Request: fold
Amino acid sequence: MTAWQRFRRAPGARLGLGVMLVLVAVGLGADLLASDLPLACRQRGTLHLLPCLTRPAALVDGVERIDGWQLRTPIPYGPYEQHPGGVTAVLAPPSRSHWLGTDDRGRDVAARLVHGTRAALLVGPFAVALYVLLGLAVGVAATLGRTADFLLGRAVEVGLMFPTLLLLLAIQGVTSSTSLLEVALAIAVTQWPHVARLTRAEALRVAASPHIEAARAVGAGRARILALHLLPLAATPALTTAAFGVGQAVLFETALTFLGFGAPAPTASWGELLAQAQASGLQPWLLVPPTLAIALVVLSCNLVGDGVRAALSSTASA
Amino acid sequence: MRLARRLMLVPATLVGITLVTFALLHALPGDAATVQAGTSRGASPESIAAMRHDYGLDRPLLRQYGAWLARSARFDFGVSLVDGEPVRAKVARALPVSLSLALLATLLAFGVAIPLGAALGYYDRRRWARASSAALYGGYALPAAAVALLVLHAGAPWGARTLVGMLPAAACLALAETVKLARYQRGALLGELAADYVVTARAKGHGARGVVAHALRNALLPTVTLLGAELPALLSAGVIVEQVFGLHGIGMMAFDAVLTRDVPLLLAITTVAAVATLAGVLLADLAYGLVDPRLRGRSA
Reply:
């Protein structure tokens, strides 16, 4: 039975993967779910298809000018726009026109929640991919020799000493600029030692196994052994942490944005909604939706992570 | 032996920590002094020159690092750019708050997680244990900020200064760790309960208490090793909890320092947090030696 089959048989892992795919779909299709422009419309005799994605100049000025028919997105608001028609309903509770109410600038919370999926799903996987690659490289490099192992081991030990969020704050403080890319980079910088430590232990174990010796005996070069014979086996713990890591990275991203240092101001982010919940005296429609969204992401990542661990660990024991 | 080797590596780690903060100082775009002067309003050319001299930015890089190392060893990170107070004094005032918060959270986390995890492991077949395990799984996914906001809204004190007043904040901080530890403890006990010696104990007629006493001892070991890894996580999550509960610890101070671009203060906090973590890791190693006599024998 392959690892994939074992993974699929675990109900939790399948659920987690399903939820994750739905969330990715929501993130990719955010503009189809929530936009100030319709899915299709007719304006002054011209038919516009999916103007919510293409944003033609003729429509961007305002929906009110559409004179023909129109098909709106399920949530007829964009993440940035205020209440159309000039009526700004600030901090309005959920109603028929705003399913999840509005925030302190009269923006639709449901629209910002949907678009916040993008921030989370951009930062999470990107940061994890970066630090898993870095951690793998450092961890495998530890098998190159005792000096390399000692020096890299010191670097990893130092890296493990810094509390992630404090180091993230320090990085934000000295670089003084914030973008989603920098948030992802900062998370990667603070998290790689964990992967490196796990990979090093596994790499040293694998390096002592007979198949590496056999590869060396038939004359395989050092680089070939590292890349083809060692890395695939030593990557197991790193792959397991990667699944959990996406959830943790989303938690870090929302925590940073909650503090006000994450994504720059108009970007829709779940952490920003939490910050608004704090600032507005804990209005439930600002607190509950982002909390559930974050929990859903972290939960699905953890379920997938458990599934990956179970699938890969039984490969090793079989 | 193990501990002695670890202690010998401590200086190397400390040097590494200062290298990171030094890199942070030089990660400032342009020149540290001009950037700070540019962002803090009303900085005169004299103050820029003073700051540049203070950091020795006119000297070669290696000399600069040497000076930085010497200053770090004395925890001398200069004065705060906001009010001119020595950074050391500021951090010394905030650190006890954060450390007592982390200590309270650790006590809570271990105090709740070990019995809880053991109970969940022992009664693994019961429906309530399965349901609780699933609930714990969900609790781990909740963002700390939301939990803290809810607890604060439920009537927890804001800006508490006593240990008792800090309890709700510590509970929020402990939540994620408790869940992690309880799940770990449950798994460890389940593993031990399946071991041959437990089967023997059962066969000899030991009741639940005897069996748990046998198995729990061994199942405690892996959980105690986690103790050392907890401090960085607690200091990290502490930033959020301190900010929500208005506690003036180093997390809150770091938050303010980012807002005011108080780089000396930020560097000092980063260094102190790393050194505190190092101390915590060493203490945990010591605790591990105490719990596991085999390791103690080896170290003698």
Q: What stands out?
A: Chain B touches chain A through 58 residues (CB under 8 Å).
